[in-house]
Amino acid sequence: MKQVVQNYKSGELAVLDVPVPGCKPGGVLVRSAYSLISTGTELMKVSEAGMSMLGKARSRPDQVAKVMQSVATNGVPATYRKVMGKLDSYTPLGYSLCGVVEQVGAGVDDVKAGDLVACAGNEHALHAELNWVPKNLYAPVPDGLAPRHAAFGTVGSIALQGVRQGESRLGEVALVIGLGLIGQLVVQLLTASGVRVVGADPDPARCELAERLGAAACGDPASAAVETAVAELTGGHGVDQVYLAAGGGSNQPVELAARLCRDRGRVVDIGKCRLDLPWNAYYEKELDVRFSRSYGPGRYDPEYELEGRDYPIGYVRWTERRNLACFLDLVARGRVDVEPLVSHIADFDDAVETYRRLKDGELKAVAVLFRYPGHTAEAEAEAPAVAVPAVKRPVGAVSAPARAAGTPVRLAFVGAGNYATSMLLPHLAQRDGVELSTVVTTTALSAANAQRKFGFAEATTDLDAVLGDKSIDAVFVVTRHSSHAELTRRALLAGKTVFVEKPLALTEDELAGVLAAVEESGNDRLQVGFNRRFAPLLQEARTRFGARTGPASLRYLVNAGRLQHGSWYLQQGTEGSRFAGEGGHFIDTASWLLGADPVSVYAVATSGNEDLQVVLRYPDGSTAAISYVTTGAPGFPKETLDLVADGKVLRLDDFVRASVYDRKRWVSSRLPTARDKGQNAELASFIKAVRTGGPMPVPLESLVATTAATLAVQTGLAGGAPVSLARTR
Fold it and tell me: Is the dihedral of CA 362, 366, 372, 376 positive or negative?
């Protein structure tokens, strides 16, 4: 078999052919599927190996002390031979992987051959095709968790043990210094525990990633941004805990911890940073300094790790293995998202080159995975799929009678945030035949402001009263993403026509819940705010492009730009990814232009999922490629689209100009006013459907297909493979 090794004397890295380890009692033989490079710990070892002998000595004074003790005991010649012999040997790398059990040793009864397990240990979870792993250093992988995500189990356990040492409590505020791999995981674990987190790191990209993953605010520790955020969140008292997840030789993290921690707060050291404690600062606040020892209780205990002797749960609740299993469960349930941390996946055969690129700074990464050959059939689940549930309408479905002549359409708004007040209500407030009946918000003042500005007859925080008001014809759901599906479901069951802003749902279960409400109530009167298909300029361009006979290629560039710090769109743990919230717009537009719903989705992303490439395939062979990027120039247009088929080209330039190239060329005149992305026409169509009882502007089947395709993007990013959109009956 092959294994990654390093010669600590020369610094040489190699992939060697070595014997297959035996399957000893008390453990299992595991064939690796993915192993994780710890870009902190492992690169530190790789860098040290490339130093001179003097540099090695300076970097490891603890080892120098051992050498001096050996000299005093055994003499210089014997010590020299011992040290050189140890240095001039190959040593393994790696300590976190996921693989498939090939053979079960005597005394093991909790797994069997073919099971997927996550493994830990710098002697047992190595970058090697096969590893023997003792019982307390592996944990079964929960059903549905991708092997590449389970490979994070060990580093996740390190972060989890650090959080446990901090004894965080609901409602507290924590500071995480260092937003590398461990720091990003600590941020998510604290957020999942109900702790508000401030992050500190000199890398702006890592700060933005941490905010997307749940941090309240992040910034450069050398700037005032971190101190300002801590002061605002804590009322000037300081954070309850500081987690040191940084490396390097600077003492700045320790000094920053003392400055921003509250009186009698806790400082937890997880990484390997300099720890020259400023005595006065720590003494005056009586700070509690704690160390987090690797994966948890059991680490470095040979009886636990090698002999399989567990600690009684009544005395030691969280051991190494229990931490590992807990972290895998959190990832499987979506409470921790490791996919945005995957910067690069390399084939195992390219291990040496990957380390070189990391060491030289050519490859900027938070986490890098090795993918092993031959694991797919055993370890990977079948090709991923996202269900496109059928729309079931019972016999005798609810009809929508036409409004009597002269009777206004009465509307209620649930939510009155920025989009509602800037893009929807201005088009409705002065529209003939429309009455703004009631606005519902969670805070009384925002409801009162919307009532005053747009002329609602009533303002309330009582949603049940609105849903029970038979005089209200339609309900607009314009709240945060996480509440859309549930509010839509309740409004449909109440018999209301519903306009819900995108997204309709953030999960397959939420989408199924909406359709269950349609089936139960017979009410399918639903519109999702996919407005671009209603844009006059795009509609005219589509008409001039005409019908097509062959498959088409569509390219859609969305220059989305970066979000401001603190935007709720960054709260992926509760509100879904940014693409989940906005991507439906672009999928719907592509499907409308191509006249069909997609049958598969393939999605890839750059480091941290900042820029996405989404490829949709359609039944007739047409394709649509959506580039959703956040790293472009702010001055470049936000949306540009090209549709090519049958010797014709349609081009849209940010809803300002459109053109069609055929035998004759048509170019629109430049719009003299602001971009019209179709909201006004969309609302007119919706109000007409409510007033007349006619069909909704977009078939419900199309709304469901677009939502399922949007959900499939996240599934595709997690699995690294095309996702089929499976129609259910």
Answer: negative
